[in-house]
Amino acid sequence: MSKQTKYQARLPDNQGFIQYPDNEHEIWQALYDRQKGNLPHYACDAYLKGLEDLAMPTDRIPQLGEIDAVLQQATGWKTAAVPALISFEKFFQLLANQEFPVATFIRSKEEFDYLQEPDIFHEIFGHCPLLTNPSFARFSHQYGKLGLAASKEERVFLARLYWFTVEFGLIRQANDELKIYGGGILSSPGETLYAMSDTPVVKPFDLIDILRTPYRIDIMQPIYYAIDSIDYLDEIVKMDIMGAVTKARQLGLHAPMFEPKSKAS
User: Fold this and answer.
1) What are phi and psi of 11, to 5 degrees?
2) Where do runs of H (alpha helix) occur along the chain?
3) Alpha-carbon span 8 to 245, nearest angstrom
4) What confidence score (pLDDT) does residue 264 get?
5) CA dist., res. 125 & res. 32, Å (int)
6) Where are the domains of the chain?
7) Would you name the residues annotated as active-site residues?
C-alpha cells in the first residue's frame, strides 16, 4: 500500500466541509446517472434499500457528515476521511472501530469505467449503502478486528476474503437470480455489466477456496464467489476464519486465472 497514487485527497475545513470544484461534482453526477440505470437490474435488495435510506445527492459529491447521520442511526458506523492509500494497519484499525475509510478524491474522466485506487464514488456509492445493513456491518467490524490481530503474512490471505466479498461479492437471491453486493463492482459501470455477463466464472462461497484464490486489482475479475443472502455474512463471522487462513497457507494458492502482470505495466 506504499504505492504512489496520482490522486490527491481533498482536506476538510475547520467545520469538516470539503470543497470540491464543479467539474468533480459533474463526474459524480455522470457516474451516478450511469449506474442508476444498472442498479435496479443488477444490485442486491439490501444494497438498493441502503441506497434509498442514504438518499445521497445525485448532482454533487456528498459531505461525509450527511452519510454519517444515516449510518450512525442504522448500525453505529461512520466514515473516516483518508488519503488515497492507507496502510493495512490503519485500514483494520478503522474497521475495528466501526469507521469506514473514504478517500476524499474522485476519479478522472479518463478512468470513468474502472479505477485501481478507491475513490469517493467507490467508497460512498459502492460500500456505504450496505453499511446500513446489520449483517454487512457486523461482518466488516469482525473483519477489522481479525485483521488488526493478524500477522503480516495472515493479512495477505485475509485480503482475499475482503476482495471476494465486500469488494467483488455476488449474491444468489431467493429466486436464484444473481445480484451484486460488492462495492468494487457496484461503483464501476464497466465491471457491473461484465460481472453480470457470461464471461466470468461464478462459484459458490467456500472460505478455504477464496483464501487460496489469487487476484489482480488492475483487471476485470475472471472469477467471483456468490453467497446465498446478505444474512450469510453472519454465518461467515461465526466460522473459524483464522483457522481457515492457517489451512490455506498450508495448502498453497490455486493457479491464477489471469495472465501475469508484465514488468513494464
Assistant:
1) -95, 145
2) 22-42, 45-54, 64-74, 88-96, 120, 134-149, 152-162, 183-186, 189-195, 207-211, 232-238, 241-251
3) 35
4) 42
5) 8
6) 22-251
7) 122, 127, 167, 187
Q: Can you give the pLDDT at residue 16? A: 87
- How does residue 265 score in pLDDT terms, banded at 50, 70 and 90? very low
Contact (CB, 8 A) for 253 and 214 = yes
pLDDT tens string 78-102: 999 998 788 999 999 999 999 999 9
> Which CATH fold topology does 22-251 show?
Phenylalanine Hydroxylase (1.10.800)
254 belongs to an annotated ligand binding site:
no
Dihedral angle at the C-alpha atoms of 10, 14, 17, 19, nearest 10 degrees? Answer: -50
Supply the DSSP symbol for 176. S
Question: Would you give the DSSP letter of residue 60?
Answer: S
pLDDT (tens digit, 9 = 90+) per residue, 5-42?
A: 678 899 889 888 999 999 999 999 999 999 988 999 99
Distance CA(63)–CA(116), nearest Å, equals: 23
Please name the residues in contact with 43: beta carbons below 8 A apart, sequence gap of 6 or more. Answer: 51, 179, 180, 181, 186
Against a cut of 0.85, is the pTM above it?
Answer: yes
167 carries a ligand binding annotation: yes
Please check if 41 is assigned to a binding site. no
